[in-house]
Amino acid sequence: MTKFIRILILSILLISPILTAQIKKIGVPFITNYNPKSYKAASENWDVLQDSKGMMFFANHFGIMQFDGVRWSIVTQPENRSMVRSLAIDKKDKMYVGAQGDFGFVIQLPNGQYQYKSLVNLIPVSARNFGDVVHTVIRKDEIIFFSYEAIFIYKNNKIKVLKPKSSFDDFLEVDKEIYVSDNAKGLLKLKNDALTPVIHGEKLAGMKIRKIFETQNGLLLLTQKNGLFSFKENLLKPFLTEADNVLKQNQISVAIQLSDGYIGIGTRQSGLIVIDSAGHLIQHINKQMGLQNDYVTNLKVDKEGSLWVTLKEGISQIQISSPLSRILDTSSSETKIYCSQIYQNKLYIATDNGLFWMDWLSYKNGKHENANFQHVSGMSENVWNIGVFGNSLLAFEKNGIFEVSGNSAKLLAKVDGAWKGILVPNHPDLLLVGGYNGMYLLKKINNSWVYQHRIKGFEESSRVIETDKNGDFWIAHGYKGIFKIKLNKTFDAVADVQFYNDKNGFPSSLFLNTFKVDNQILFGTTKGVYKQDSHSKKMIPEPIFKKYLGLESHIRLLKPDNQNNIWYVSGENTGKMTKISNGSFTVEELPFRKLRYLYVPGFENIQTTTSGDVFFGTQDGLIHYNAIKNKKYQTKYKALISEVKCIFPKDSLIFSSRYDVLPNKTKEAGEEISRVLSYSNNALHFSFSSLFYDEADATKYEYWLEGFEPKWSEYSLQTEKEYTNLPENEYVFHVRAKNIYDVVSEEAVFRFEILPPWYRTIWAYVLYFILYSVVIYLIIKYQKSVAERDRQQLILNQEKELLRSRAELNEQRLTLEQENMAIVRENLETTINLKNAKVASSTVNLIHLNEILLSIKELISQIDKKNDPNVNFSLLTKINKLIDHELQGDKQWNEFEEIFNQLHDNFMQRLKQSYPVLTPRDMRLCAYLRMNFNTKEIAPLLGISVRGVEDTRYRIRKKLQLPSDANITEFILNF
């Protein structure tokens, strides 16, 4: 009775309000291991914590290590570069750090970096010689740093030092109390900054207590080598558990109280052990079960309910809150699993390496060490299916049909590959087996199955077979279509075959499947669930499944169980349709998102039991599901912009938490970082992540650069984005995540501004304005100068035009003058001609006068001869002399010569100068020739005969030295 009360009290006290976080007892939770190669730091990790945003931090040998769900990085180190041993964080995300020979605090700067500040300078010099600070605890307004040499209490920027007489063993936080294990004094309590002994605490000296949990039944002590004890009222009693041997042999290093009263215990040599409040073993997860190292240094449950395990080598994340777990053993012999079956309390799995079994009851009760998969001898190749038919377990293998009994299998029929068996309706003693190239019939004789014959008339691959209420067989061929087979009455041949494909209503002839749900034949297609219309015989969408599963996904499996559930694999999603009282269904998919991409394609299989166990056969082993285990899937989480850097210059970081990478790392807390970038930095690279660690690799992201892009991108697995040649503008980079449960994260934003290039800055525009003004001024000035030049040119042109006009006028005047001169010349010529005419007239008159005088003379001479010579002689002589005188005409000649020279450009003078040998008579003759008188006209003028004129002409020719053939008249006219 006392034991029962003790168990009940511990159960009540240790149980958490959130009952849904209970770790599964069946199977091993999903484990994600992070080794030193993945996080690129030291192998040893000593502590782990999570800040208010959800970021994970680890105390690593190289410093404080951060994990944002995608990237690992060392964010800071103690000033002495020693290993970090312990971490604590307050509500403002200020981290306190215990290191080797150092301790202090860490804050995050606006540029994303973390800055470490040592507090060692606050303690006396004499107390600065200490080792590892293995515990750091925040208590109200004080922070306690614990080392084996001293306890440092930091409060109000002062540090109080508490030293042991010998040495401390461990620091133990229990609810609101703090205990210290002293190697000499035993168990002490820290209160009011002083250590006070616990009553009878000296009895615990040397026990190496590693953890204490407080209960109404006293303190539950976890020791390093001696197991668990309860301590109350001076009474120390062992607390027996099913894991005592393991705990005592492998040394407890750390422990954590899980949310449902379970206790997780980390050991130094055997990994993690989970017990319930009564001491029953729930889980033992060690290196053989998937943990990468057996030395557990610390434990922490995150906001999502996952357990983080820091190890001597590496880090592991155990998803203790998941309803899914792996059925694992130490042999690790199973690979791809095509089918599972529980038969006679044994769990069988059909794999590509044969058939295996394990004791299911032992495994289910937590005896994992003794429950290993064992190989069924006789089969070592692909076992496609197993099933219970009557009281027999049959296996269908590549080489034939086998009956399984215990650890061995007996060949029933050697055929060319067997896929699956199905009982013939209304004939429980007949089994139809689908094979690679047709069908076979087995018959139960004397409680044993016996091979009969091959079914004639059908030679297609028959991997998927179902029977309807009429006894017909529906066979799905994944690459051809659906066959409906009717056997003859003797079940040895096919009586009728009907074939259905896309011509009969299916959306495609490929990847068709056939299932039997509620005694109805259904078909899985690439576009939802179909059935055959009873009237038209056409294939049509099934309305219920259309409503719940739609017509867009490939239905790969439909599997009803005995609890009104229909299990399905639709596309990449696995789900459960549960029928409720009103006949409708509820659909549940979120718990099974982990199964995405794990099935063997084309061999999806789900096995259910009456006890509620569900098994999924995958290419990654057998996975168990328990509906009692409920996980919260709508947990809020944040997206995170991990790093922002400029591509040019190469890797110029703007924002990052990476250690010692930013040039402005000396900025103090609260100092704003400039996110105003020059135009030369207009190519940016963003790295982002989400603070959700369950299947973090499957988290998808969408992003949007506001100010550059019109809308959000599509979701993708991409965790980085580059932008190049961004124009000047103010930008906001947004990013959101969507986890495997389709929960969208809180949005992360990064605001920045790209400045314009220097030639588009305000000063450039001012310069442009000035230059523009100068240019306008110069243009105006130039235009003015051009206008002035044009004006001067115009004036010059006008002057030239005026001059030209004047010249034209002068020319016109000259022309007029010339015309006038011509007129004058004409007038002169007319005058000359008149004078010539006058001269000629005078000459003619003279000639006439001379002719008269000659005539008179001749008459006188005649008269003289007739009259008395003596009477009139004297008188006649005087008359004759007078006439001769008149004939000489010297006076008239002189007048003639003067007029002639005027008319003929001093002809007489020029001729006399040229030919001085000419006599006056010769000159006269030349003048008359100049006047173009003929010989007859000249003779009277000279008072000589025509002969005399000829002779005179001859003499003149000689004087002028003219050749004989020359015309003297032409010479005189041209002289």
From TrEMBL:
GO terms for biological process: regulation of DNA-templated transcription. The keyword Transmembrane applies. The chain crosses the membrane at residues 762-780. One of its GO terms (molecular function) is phosphorelay sensor kinase activity. The keyword Ubl conjugation does not apply. Signal peptide: none annotated. Residues 915-972 form the HTH luxR-type domain. Keywords: Coiled coil, Membrane, Phosphoprotein, Transmembrane, Transmembrane helix. Residues 799-826 form a coiled coil. SUPFAM superfamilies: C-terminal effector domain of the bipartite response regulators (SSF46894), Calcium-dependent phosphotriesterase (SSF63829). Pfam families: Y_Y_Y (PF07495). PANTHER family: HYBRID SIGNAL TRANSDUCTION HISTIDINE KINASE C, TWO-COMPONENT HISTIDINE KINASE. This is Y_Y_Y domain-containing protein. It comes from Flavobacterium defluvii.
